[in-house]
Design brief:
It is built from no helices and 10 strands. The strands form 3 sheets. It has a 4-stranded antiparallel β-sheet, with no helix packed on it. Strands 1-2-3 form a 3-stranded antiparallel β-sheet, with no helix packed on it. It is globular, with a radius of gyration of 15 Å. The protein binds zinc ion (ZN) (2 copies).
């Protein structure tokens, strides 16, 4: 395994925070700070076969402290939730869909996003320079 995240090198960088941006449904958006670039629109291609599954999918590696989990990957899709970028996270332990947990009481500079599944597993997505760096 080399790269934690497979992203195209053509993705533009966020004008606000410099992170790599990803393609949302209609425009580019930064999953680190939420900046949306409306000037960038999806380029029409001749082979638009998957109009319904335009979400960007990541496969994230574990970046936490437990060596036993080092090979465990988490599948994450970037989706639009209302008017902002959200994540569709599959639990790395039981493969269920996860729900975003509230970060109330956390420092705002801790930009990790927390998720939990019905079985009580908890996952945090850790932001990095290229978007989401990994999970723990
Ligand atoms: Zn940004
Ligand atoms: Zn689970």
């Amino acid at each position: 395994m080399s790269a934690a995240i497979s992203l195209s090198n053509n993705d533009p960088l966020c004008r606000r925070c410099g992170s790599r941006m990803v393609m949302g449904y209609d425009e580019m958006e930064c999953i680190t700070c939420g900046y949306v670039d409306y000037s960038f629109t999806r380029q029409p291609t001749t082979s638009r076969k998957n109009l319904l599954s335009t979400a960007t999918e990541y496969v994230l590696r574990y970046v936490g402290d437990f060596p036993a989990l080092a090979e465990t990957l988490t599948h994450v899709k970037v989706v639009r939730i209302r008017n902002r970028a959200g994540f569709d996270v599959e639990c790395p332990f039981c493969s269920r869909a996860m729900e975003e947990a509230s970060l109330s009481g956390k420092r705002p500079e801790a930009r990790e996003r927390r998720f939990k599944c019905q079985d009580g597993h908890r996952v945090s997505l850790i932001p990095g320079k290229t978007g989401v760096e990994g999970w723990r």
